User: What shape does this take?
Amino acid sequence: TGAVGGRLKLKEISPSGAMEKKYMEYENFLKKIEGIFGCAAGCFGGLWAVKKENFVYLNENKLLMEDLLIPLYIQKKEYYVKYAPLAAAYENTEKTFFCDIKRKERIAVSNYIMVPYIVKNLSRKNAFFILSHKLIRFFIPQAFVLLVILSLLNHNLFISKAVLTAVFFSAAASFFSVKVKYFLYLILIYNSALFK
Assistant: This one.
């Protein structure tokens, strides 16, 4: 084991905090499943530990999120990144909706800057978890814009209906990938004896 992350619990202090709290429960669930395989897709910044020899100083860009990239570097070196749900940190949700938006803008910019670093550090062990938990969702907004453009083009008959149907099906599958992911995780857990 090269690193261990804990669970982040949010305290609601605003109406918009309820959604953030639900999202954090989902994130904790995913990290728990990923941790079973030693492939946690990052850790929560306020609560994680790294073995000294596995720590990497990221001085290239202040927007790089250490709590995601360092665990990926560690996994690339064939170490596990575990999740310890009994180790918990508490944090308040943002006070206003606008503060929450500002924070999410910073995170979104960081996500796009980190894509090459993430892709470079994929391994056989963590690729499924990183792709399904992190990378696919970074590009859902672009997929949505593409769907709007394709639907407008369809009215002009520039695109065959078969192609458009395939695109819409792919987009719908990505939006509902959470359900598929739960199913795949359950299968992986059930068959985890095969991985040992």
